[in-house]
Write a structure and sequence with these properties.
Chain lengths: 113, 111
Amino acid sequence: DTEVTQTPKHLVMGMTNKKSLKCEQHMGHRAMYWYKQKAKKPPELMFVYSYEKLSINESVPSRFSPECPNSSLLNLHLHALQPEDSALYLCASSQAAGLGRGSFGQGTRLTVV
Amino acid sequence: GQQVMQIPQYQHVQEGEDFTTYCNSSTTLSNIQWYKQRPGGHPVFLIQLVKSGEVKKQKRLTFQFGEAKKNSSLHITATQTTDVGTYFCAGRTDSWGKLQFGAGTQVVVTP
């Protein structure tokens, strides 16, 4: 069982929709991450939050908007996505940025139609 | 920029055989982590190596970190069907803690 919880597990959205992915952890981790994973590829880092502040944005298009409301929660707001954005979106956390093992959530499998 | 290369990308193993997957970095790493992802699943942390020349064992899995901290390997002995999945190495430099994932080794086990 994962200690990082992601909802929803599956999401189908149209290109004009707005949706949000949610992630929660209660391990006291101070770094939280969003990754995108395409089939048969490694996870690609999108964003890093350290102590609730955005510390890394890997040149992600603005149609992806992260938000960290508190130390336990991480959201990814989606708007005007493209079919090529369909992927598994993984949330992860670690003790601190650059420190400790990464704990991954089960992911949200996103399909953009 | 930092790159982590991982080989082989695909490994077909007979049950009971051994195999090894290798990672090489273009730059010195502060640490390297290994993850396993089952088909349809999410990456699960296996181990972290920090020290030069470090060797760690977990039952049938042996992890090594090179002396120069630029390469690492995962060796699995007596492969079982439960070992099926993709094994990723992920290296971290001293700079800002970004994990750079290798391409992964997809392991298929034949009974």
